[in-house]
Amino acid sequence: VERQSREYVEGRIRAGVLEDTMTNIMTSLNIDARMQREGLPHDGINLSDGKHLIRIDIRELTGRSVMVYGQTEVTRDLIDS
User: Fold this and answer.
1) Mind spelling out the 3-state secondary structure of 18-53?
2) Cβ atoms of residues 27 and 53 within 8 Å
């Protein structure tokens, strides 16, 4: 339940990194087309102290990845479904 208007909810900007479980749920509900088209799959992260760069490969370590796809976009997809 949202107290704000639909226009407000759809217009606010929210960050979003979706874990594998959430992308699987969206796929199982058949509301993942836009996420698959517009989201950015992310298999790892880079850490840097300015001199050294360390890559942590999340997919290699866990067998999973994340999807960069804004919370606002998930909300729009849910409303549209």
Assistant:
1) EEHHHHHHHHHCCCCHHHHHHCEEECEEEEECCCCE
2) no
Domain limits, the chain: 6-80
Residuewise pLDDT in 10s, the chain (81 residues): 678 888 887 777 777 899 999 999 999 999 999 999 999 999 999 999 999 999 999 999 999 999 999 888 998 899 899
Residue 75 burial by Cβ neighbours in a 10 Å radius (0-12, 13-18, 19+): middle
Say what angle helices 71-80 and 20-28 make with each other, to 10 degrees: 10
Write the single-letter amino acid at 56.
I
CA end-to-end span of the chain, whole Å?
16
The length of the chain, given as a count of residues? 81
Please give the Cα distance from 14 to 1 (Å, whole number).
Answer: 17
